[in-house]
Write a structure and sequence with these properties.
The chain is α+β, with helices and mostly antiparallel strands and 171 residues long. It is 29% helix and 32% strand. It is built from five helices and seven strands, in the order E-E-E-E-E-E-E-H-H-H-H-H. Strand 4 and strand 5 (55-60) form a beta hairpin. It is globular.
Length: 171
C-alpha cells in the first residue's frame, strides 16, 4: 500500500507551532502515511507493531519515540494500544533552536534516535517506567486539544509544558 501525505486534518497555530492529539489506535486506524511535522509517540498501555519505513519494531507501554517529517509509518497488530501523540510543526524546532541546544539529549531524541529506529528491527530506545509515565500523563492534560487549558489565553502554558516534557524525555 502506498503511503499518503496527511495534511488536511492538522492545522497548526502560527504562534505555537504545536498540535496535540490523543489517539487510541485500536479504534482509529491509519494506513501507512507520512506528514510534514514531527510526531512524538508516548505509549501508555498495550502493545503493537510500529512500522517505520521498512523496519518493524514491537512497541509496548513506556516506549517513547519521535517520527521525523516525511517518514512513512503505521501501527498494526495492536492490542489495547494507547498512544499519545505530540505533533510538532517542523518549524517549531527551528524557531526554538536556542532553547533546544540547551537541552542535553534533545538532538538524540529528535534526530539520532529516529534514524536508528528506522534502520534497526529491535528496540533499544527510550523506555519509561510506570512512575515516569504517570508523571508525563499528569503534564499532558495541560497540552491536550480540548483539554483543561484549550483556549488561546493558555497558549503560554501549552508552550511551557511542551518544553518541560521535551526536556524530561531528552535528559
Amino acid at each position: 500500500m502506498e503511503a499518503k501525505l496527511l495534511t488536511e486534518k492538522y492545522e497548526f497555530d502560527a504562534n505555537l507551532e504545536c498540535l496535540y492529539r490523543y489517539v487510541y489506535s485500536d479504534t482509529e486506524h491509519f494506513d501507512p502515511h507520512y506528514h510534514e511535522f514531527y510526531e512524538m509517540n508516548i505509549v501508555f498501555s498495550g502493545k503493537g507493531t510500529h512500522k517505520i519505513n521498512q523496519s518493524k519494531i514491537n512497541v509496548k507501554s513506556g516506549d517513547v519515540f519521535v517520527i521525523p517529517p516525511f517518514t512513512t509509518h503505521t501501527y498494526y497488530d495492536t492490542d489495547n494500544l494507547d498512544v499519545y501523540h505530540i505533533l510538532l510543526h517542523k518549524d517549531f524546532i527551528l524557531q526554538n533552536k536556542t532553547q533546544s541546544d540547551k537541552v542535553p539529549g534533545f538532538l538524540q531524541l529528535t534526530e539520532i534516535e529516529p534514524y536508528l529506529r528506522q534502520n534497526n528491527d529491535h528496540s533499544v530506545f527510550l523506555h519509561l517506567n510506570a512512575e515516569q509515565l504517570l508523571q508525563i500523563k499528569k503534564e499532558l492534560i495541560f497540552i491536550e486539544d480540548n483539554g483543561i487549558v484549550d483556549t488561546k489565553e493558555y497558549i503560554p502554558i501549552k508552550y511551557h509544558t511542551t518544553w518541560k516534557i521535551l526536556y524530561w524525555l531528552s535528559y
